[in-house]
Every structure is written in C-alpha cells, then in structure tokens.
Amino acid sequence: MAVGLEHFLVLSAVLFAIGLYGVLAKRNAVVILMSIEIMLTAVNIAMVAFSRYGQFITGQVFVIFIMVVAAAEVAVGLALIIAIYRSKKTVDSEKFDLMKW
Amino acid sequence: MPNIAVWAIFLLPFLSFLIIGLILRPFFNNRPMLSAYTTIIAIAGSLILSIWALIAVNGAENHVLTDVSYQWLSIGDLVINIGITMDSLAAIMVVTVSTISLLVQIYSIGYMKGDGGFARYFAFMSLFTGSMLGLVMANNLLFLFLFWEGVGLCSYLLIGFWFHKPSAARAAMKAFLVTRIGDFGFLVAVIFLYVKTGTFDIGELHELALAGVLGGTTLTLAAIGIFSGAVGKSGQFPLHTWLPDAMEGPTPVSALIHAATMVTAGVYLIARMFPMIASSETAITVVAIIGGFTAIFAASMGLVATDIKRVLAFSTISQLGYMMLGMGAVGMGYASGAIDEHHAMALGVAVAIFHLFTHAFFKALLFLGSGSVSHATGTFDMRKMGGLRKIQPWTYATFLIGSLSLAGIWPLAGFWSKEGILHEANAYAPVLFWLAMITVFMTAFYMFRAVFLTFHGEYRGGEEGSHGHGLHESPKIIIIPLVILAVFAVIAGWLPVGDFLGADVHFSFFGALTSWLAWVSLIFGFAGILLAYAIYGRKLLSAESIGKSLGPIYTLLIRKYFIDELYERIFLMRFLVDGVFVVLGWIDAHIVDGAVNGVAMVTMTGGKVMRRLETGQLQVYGLAIFVGILAIVAFLFMFN
Amino acid sequence: MDLYLLSPEISLLATALAVILLDLFVKEKWILGWVSVTGVIVSAIFALSLWGRVETSFGGALAVDQFSIFFSLLFLGIAALILISSTEYSRKFAAFRAEYYALVLLATTGMMLLASTRELISIFVALELTGISLYVLAGFLKDAKSSEAGLKYLLLGAVASAVLLYGMALVYGLTGTTYLDEIAAAISSQGILGSPALLMGIVLLVAGFGFKIAAVPFQMWVPDVYEGAPTPVTAYLSVASKAAGFAVILRIFYEALGPASLDWGMIFAVLAAITMTIGNIVALTQKNIKRMLAYSSIAQAGYIMIGLAAFTAEASSAIMFFLACYALTNLGAFIAIIAISNKINSDEIADYSGMVRRAPLFALALALCLISLTGIPPTAGFMAKIYIFSAGVNADLLWLVIIAVINSVISAYYYLRVVRVMFLGEPLSEERVHASSGLRIALAITCLGVLLLGIYPWILMKYSEIAAITFLP
Predict the structure, then answer these.
(1) What's the pLDDT at B465?
(2) Highest mean pLDDT range out of A19-33, B255-269, B441-455?
C-alpha cells in the first residue's frame, strides 16, 4: 500500500484533534500550551503534505513561518504563565476565574 | 458678498451657543455677563452680515444672491443636500430676525438680571436665533424642517425656562404637544413630496408646481400638509391654544419668539412655498379662510383678557391670521385668473411679509413694554395696574406708539402693511375683507383698552408690587431698546419692502389717504379707540354692566370659546382618558404588560443565563470555539 | 520592489525600535510617549502621500490601494489617541513605559500590514505580530487580573490561530497557492466551488477571524480580557483589533473567496444575528462598565457583520464607515472611563452616580459616546447604523436588519442607564474629578469627531466609498 496524501491528511487531522483535546481537557497551563503546539504541528504536516504532493513549494515556506511564530508565541505564553504563577501560586487553569459573568 | 459670509449669518449665533455651552457655562459660571456679551456680539455680527446681504441682494440679478447646495449624505439613491439661499425674501427675514433679536438680547440683560439661569438663558437665545436664521435661509424642505424643529425645541425650552413653576412646565409641554400635531403633517407632506417628485429642493418644487407636473390631489394634499405645520407654528385656528399659555416664559422670550420671529415662521413657510401652495386652489382657499377666521376669532378673545401679555398673544395670533389672509387672497386672485402668475407670486409674498416685517417691530415693542410695566409692578394683570403714565413716561410713550401702529393709524408702520392686506382681500375675497375690517375695529379697541387700563386712571395694585421699593421707570438698558423699536414702529412702513420683494407697490405718503379703503379702515380704527376711551378712559360706560348685559358672550370670550376645555375635557378626558385609556388600560394590563414584562423578563433572564456561560473558565471558552465550528459545519451541511 | 510603498509600516517599526533604544538613554520618560505620537504622525503622512496609488509589490504580496490606506490611517488615528490618553495611565507601570509604547506601535504595524497584504503567509505573520503584541499588552499590569486576562487571551488566541491555520492549509491545499487573487482564480476554474473541503476551510477561516472580531460563539474571551487588561489596552483592543479583523476578512473573503460567496454570506448573516442578540442581552445584566462595554462591542460587531453578509461594494463602504465611527465613539467612551475610573478607582456603574456634578465634561462626553453607541442622532453612531442597515436592506437582508433594529432598541436600555445614573443619581462624594491634558485632548478630538460625523457624515463617507470601490475585484 502506497502512502498517499490522504494518509498524511488523516494523520494531521488526528494530531489536530489530539491537540484540541489537550487544550480542552488538561488543567495545567503549560500542558495546554504544549497541546497548542501539537495543533500547530498538525497544521505543519498538512502544509508539507500539500506542498509535497501538489508540487508547490510555498507550503514549506509557510511551515517555517509557522514554526518561528509559534516559538515567539510560546515564549510570551511562558512569560505570562510565570507572571500568573507569581500572583496565584498555581498554573491550574481552573483557578483562573477572577473574572467571570 | 462671499458665500462664507452668508453662511456665517446663521452660524455665528450657533457658535455663540457652543461657546456659552462648552466654555463659558462650565468654566466661567461666576461671570454670567460674559454669556450675554457673547450672544450680543454674535447676533450683532449676524445683523451686520444680514444688512450686507440685503444690500448685496438688492444689487444682484433677480434679487438672488446665492443659492447653493452641498451634498450632505448619499446612501444609495437617497441624496440629501444642505443648502442656503439668499434672495429678497430671505434677506428681509434675516434682517428682521437679527435686528429684533439683538434688541431683545440687550433688553434681556436688564430684564433677566440676577436670574440663576442667566447663562442658560443666553445659550438658548443664541441657539434660537441661529435656528431661526437658518430656517429662513434653508433652500430645501428637509434642511428647513431641521431648523423648524430647532426653533420649536428652543421655544419649548424657553417657555419652560422657569421650570420650577408648574404653570410654566405645563405651558411648555402644551406648546410642544400642540405644535407637534402640525409638524407631523408638515413632515408627512415633505416625505410625500419627496416620494412623488424625488426632491426636497424648494426651487425645483416650485418649478414642478408652476409647470403643472406636480398638481391635482397630490399637490393639494402636500400643500395642506405644509400648511398644517404653519398652523401649528403660527398659532392659527384650531391649533392656537398653546400660544396664550406660552406667555409663561420670560417676557423677552415672548417678544422675540412668540411675537416677532418664531411664530411668524409659519407665515414665512407659506410665503417661501407660495408658488407651490398657490398652484392648488383648494389649498390656498383654505389658507385664506383659516387666516381670516383666526384673525377675528383671536381678536375677539383679546377683547376681554385681563393679562396684558395674553392680550398681546391673542393680538399676535390675530395679526398672523391677517398675514395668512393676505397671501390667501392673492392666491385666490391668481387661481381665479385675475392676476397673472409673475405678478401674483411676488404680490402674495410681498403683502404678507411686509406686514410680518412691521408687525415684528411694533409687537416686539409692545411685549417689551409690557415687560417694562411688569418690571415696575411685578404683575401682568391689568386689573392691578393703572396710572403708570406718570411713573413710566418712556414706557408709556413707546407703548402708545406701538398700540397706534398696531391699530393701523396713519402714518405709522401698521397702517401701511395692513392697507396692503385689506386691499387684496377686498379685491379677491370680499367676505373675508369685511371680517378683517371688523378685526381692525376690535384690534384698536383691545389695544386701547390695555393702554387705558395700564397707564391711565389710578394705580390699583396696592403696595405689594414694585419689588418693595416703590414704582419706578425701568433702567436705561430696558428703555433704549424700547425707543429704538418705537422708531421702527413709526417708520418701518415707509420702507420699500414690497418693491424689494418684487411687487410694484406705489408708496405715497399722502396719496394713501385718497382711497376710500384707507378712510374706512381708519374710521374703524378710531371707532375702536373711542369706544375703549369711553369705557375705560372716561368710564362713560361701565365695563361690568356691558359684561353683564352680554353675559353669555362675555363668558364665551373669557373662556376662549371653551376650546381649551373642548380639547382637554372632551378630547382628553372623555375621548382619550375614558375611551382610549380604558382600552389602552385593558391592553396594557392584559397584553402589553404581560408582553413587555414577558419580553423584559425573557430578555433579562436570557441575559442572566447567557452570563452564566461566561464561567471565567478558559477551557469552557475553548470548548465554545470548538462547538461553534461544529455547529456551523452542521448548519452548512444541513442546508446544502 | 518599491520600498516606498511600505514606508508607513517601516517608519512605525523604526519608531518602535527607537523608543526602546531611547529608553536606555533618556531620563525624562514622558518624552517617549510624544516620540511615539510623532512616529505615528510621520507614518500617517507617508500613508497620506500614498493615497490614490493602486499598486502591488513584493511579488504581489503587498497591495497599496485606498482600502489599505483607509485602514492604515484608521489604525494610526486610533494608536495616536491611545498613546495620548496613556500618558497618565502609564504611571502604573512606570518602569516599562517604553515597552508599552513600542508594543502599541508594533501592534499597529501588524494591523496596517493585515489590511494591505494579499497573501496568506503575510496575513498570518501580520496577524501574529498584532496578536502577540496585544497578548503582552493585556497582561501588562502584571497583577492577578491583568495576567489572567493576558494568559486567557494568549491561549485562546493561539487556539484560534491554529484553527485559522488549518483553514488556510485546506484552502492552500485545494488551490495550490497562497495569493488571494490566484485563489479566487483557482476556485472558479478548477470546479472546487462546492467541495466539502473548501467549505470546511472557509468555516475554519470564519472561526479564526471570528475570534478576532469577537463574533459569537468565538467571543467568550472578550469580557474577561477587556475587564482585566489595562483600560487603554482594552480601548485599543475593542476598536483597533476589531477593525483589523474586519479589514482582513473583507480582504480575504471579498478578494479570494468571492466566487464562493453564497455559502459564507449566509454564515455571516446568521452569526451576525446571534452575535448582536447575545451581546446586547448579556450587556443588560452587567454592573461593571468595562464589562458592559465589552458586551456592547460584541453587539456592535454583530451590526458590522451585516455588511459582511451583504457582500456588496456599498456594504464594504458601510463597514469601513461604521468602523471609523465606532472607533471614535468607543475610544471616546473608554477615554472618559480612563479619566473617571483612574480617580474613583472603580469600574462599577453604580459608582458613577451623580458624576455630572463631579466631572461635568467627562460625564457629558461619556453620555455623548453612549448616545452614539445607541445610535441616536445627531451622532456618528446614528449615521453608521443608517448606512449599514440600508446596505443590508439593499442586499435583501431585511430580516437581519429588523433584528438589528430591535437589538438597537434593547441596547438603549443599558447605554442610557449609565447616562441616567450619571445625570440623575446623587454623587457619592463631592470630590471633583480631574484628568491630564492628554486625556482631555484625546476626549475632545473623539467627541468632536462623533458630532462632526453625525452632522456631516459625507466628509468621511466619500472616502470610504472610494476605498471600497478601488479594492473590489
């Protein structure tokens, strides 16, 4: 059985779903951040697959950009988690409910 | 004259309003005189520019200096312009309005001295003057309507200026509601015209009407709608009831707004729209009849009123009726083919505006005079006055000039303008002419009744009046405007206003006395004065015994034909309260209340429930995004 | 490649860097704020000089047309007002003033790029440049509320970005290109119009951008972030970020997905109805004014989405006009709130009682802005609503406009309630509320703008019409 575009897309979709599950179910803010990274990786796989099978190179360029931006995002995210940890002494996302309703 | 200067005529008072409202009132409230000076400087600026405009218009081709429009808004097919015109009619009006306004503002410094709302008063007066000047310059109906509502708003604010007085608050509300009835008709007519013709531009409407494109029922309905606005604003029968009550406002307000300018906006509107309205015979006949009837009807109520300002208010209504009658008569002449188009259009406007012009001066004078009297006596009730001739010689002299002018005595201003109207009425509407003649008699009678009651005989006010320091003549700041207005009340009739407006009126100082009509009206006028003298000056006849012998009529007049009662008792109480209110009450209790409460409750509960979704939980928010995407996908695949 | 076309963005970027560098050398920190404002003005001058040019550069990735200039000027105007009104507020984080100003400038750069790029990668980078700057700004106070707001915003924003990227990946995979015009050509020529994958891609794009403009159900972050973020940042978020979202939606959906219009027009119509309704009815129950304005901004986004659903040149012009009016009005409201809240240390509506006697000008200005948000003449809000509603009616969306009108009536209740509290309530104390000249200037500009656009809207409408026409394919 040859590995085709569909397989990569299914892999990408599954990975995206796993990431989404992590975002919605995990309590720890750091883990949520990691789950978001998984979602972005899923996008990257789809991009590269499209690029490889469609013979257009831009997808790979896109992936580089996504990785760079994601790194910046994680840096800011971790900084914010540290800031919130200083005032709350926890990174449990369920405890972040100072503002509601 | 540059365009910008023409715009500045009405923008200057607006600027003054903004300066007072945004700068002087918040930051310099301890220096109230600044507000007065700002207003006076702005209006003086308007006056100078107005005079400049008048001179420029006189030299311009066709007497039209500017007629410019700018696009204000364009949404799809709906294009709304704003624009002003400066033609002879607008020029006369801006000069009249700014002159009177300036004098009234000067007078107000004295009259309103020490009032807590001094700055607020001048802010409103500026706003009013700006709106009124804008109204007479607007060249399309929508823009005009904007200012029309603006002056109405100011009138409401100024009648209720002393809002802590219940009667003032009630009078303001009444003025607001009653004029709204007329304005509603006006607005409907404006929209109706736009739908039919696709334009708000007054000039274009006239062309369409004169060319016959706009005609038939459409034209008649639109013209009557516009006239209904004028009826409300100018206090014509049957919407006249608000004007006497409006006298609750400060006297300078009555002089400026409820005598000289705002109430004449109705007359101005008919004059501005004259070519269109005169093209409908039905509409112009209605104008003539309402005008003629209002003239005599209001005058009759003025015969018995005991409050000097109310006498003047009835007189104002009556004189406005005259102006309507003048235009109506010319329009009827045009409709019957007796006058050709070119001549009729100018003549109709000329007779009405000439009287509006002279009336503005002598009526403002009379109002300000009554304010001066009240300044001394602390009342407007003529039964508590008398003998003020010796104490207030200046007030007396100027008031007398104003009364003579209003009574139409040669050679004062009122004589000339009234002659013009009577002449046209005699030619084209003989029945209305005789009504007007009787009105001349009544006018002379009630004005001199006021003069004799106020200034002659013995003082009847006791000691309580006069601010506790004895009766006195008013200060110079009050007297000077009176004197200036008195001069105008004499000479305003000699000015070639009619010629300026395009009608050939041959002014001849003594020649006027050669026509039979002038003599008849003078005889009627003198008869009125003599009768007043006999009753109230010499007391040859007792007012009480006349009142008793004419019992029912007297009651009818003093109760203002029971029209207030008719409106309030019959319409409001029987019909509205008892009838509609019962129905409304039922609907309210059973349906609306339920529905409103229901809707309000559902909405509020909905709000409270939705609010609970905002748990503050990050992951709930993430879930919402996810569920949202699923819902959209489901929605799409269901419908595709 | 004409770098001059990019001069507004470059000069703004340079200013941001200059501010950070200056911070190292300058003792008088207040200078930084005015340096930033000057940078914004310089950038605006460059942008103005480009008005009228319709060109592309960077291989077609950058488009300079009236549409992008219109939005650039809008963002720059907002940024200038925010910077001016932050001068006093920034004392709360005195040590990081330079970073604050620089981040505002960077976010603005990102938004300007967002309005002028025509290529998916650039759009993504611009979006993230805006987003990351704003995440930091939201958490800038570093107290519990502010950090929480920043983190919530970041995590949800990142999820939205991932969703958006997945959508972009699908569109890219189907069409083989990231250029918007080529996407449009590919969609119409390759017969993928009805393909479920494209539809899925569009839905994901809607969700990703829906987060930016705070459309229901992607709006949940809005109230929390608005409440927790520093008030000037909230103001910035509520107008600039939203406007940027609409700019990029207009760009992508009109330019690239035009042929597939039927589908997404309907999505936006339904979302618009839900968004305005939910925003309004939840706003009814709010007691904190910043939170109330957060829901109000959701409702306003609902009104603007009528224009997206309509998909005509008129509607696009109406959106731009609405955004400008909304920006002025909402900024005015927030600036008044900054001034008042700074002094009374409360955002509770009840504490605004009798404010007209303690701060007459601020109370009047706030009342004017709330009236404009309600949509009562003679204010900008009224004209904006008239314009966008009539665009909706002309596009056969009468049902949606009726819902919007009902919503406007509902909204009057909570907007005017604040006015009533301020004017009729008894003041809680006699202490007068004063504010810096920066706030006063900014407030005066917004209020005059609100009145000017309410009285003479044509002054701006003619430009929004031109901008909409040049950009429509």
Answers:
(1) 47
(2) A19-33
Chain C residues touching A29 at Cβ < 8 A:
151, 155
Quick check: B430 and B288 in contact, CB under 8 A?
A: no
Token couple for B629: 């995407």
According to DSSP H, which parts of C176-241 are helical? 180-189, 196-213, 221-228, 231-236
Contact with chain A for residue B623, Cβ under 8 A: yes
CA distance B402 to C392: 60
CA pair distance C136, C151, nearest whole angstrom: 9
Domains (ranges, CATH) in chain A?
A: 5-90 (1.10.287.3510)
Tell me the C-alpha distance between C215 and C297, whole Å. 10
Contact between residue C257 and residue C202 where contact means Cβ atoms under 8 Å apart: yes
DSSP-H helix ranges across C214-344: 221-228, 231-236, 242-249, 261-283, 289-310, 313-344
How far apart CA B348 and CA B325 sit, in angstroms, is 10
- Six-digit token string for B176: 């607001």
Instruction: Look up tokens 């990569």; give the residue.
Output: A8
The chains in contact with chain C, meaning 3 or more Cβ pairs closer than 8 Å, are: A, B
Phi, psi of C365 (to 5 degrees): -65, -45
- C231-289: pLDDT as tens digits: 999 999 999 999 999 999 998 988 888 766 556 788 889 999 999 999 988 888 888 89
Cα–Cα distance, C82 to C64 (Å, whole number)? 25
Classify B495 as helix, strand or coil: coil
> Nearest chain C Cα to B596, which residue?
C410
Dist. CA B149–CA C423, nearest whole Å: 25
**pTM for this structure?**
0.69
CA-closest candidate to residue C449, choices C330, C272, C286:
C330
Query: In this structure, are residues C54 and C43 in contact, taking their beta carbons and an 8 Å threshold?
Result: no
Residue of A23, A24, A97 lying closest to B616 (CB–CB): A97
Find out whether C89 and C345 touch, Cβ atoms under 8 Å: no
The two beta strands, B64-75 and B78-87, are antiparallel
Q: What is the distance of C-alpha B541 from the center of its chain? A: 37
Q: Which residues pair with B70 in a beta bridge?
A: B82
Q: Which residues of B267-287 are buried (b: 16+ CB within 10 A; e: fewer)?
A: bbbbbbbbbbbbbbeebbbbb
One-letter amino acid for residue B343 of the chain: H
CA angle B344, B349, B352 (to 5 degrees): 125
pLDDT tens digits, one per residue of B390-428: 788 888 888 888 888 888 887 888 888 888 888 888 888
Six-digit token string for B202:
């007054």
Which residues of chain C neighbour A100 with C-beta distances below 8 Å? Answer: 224
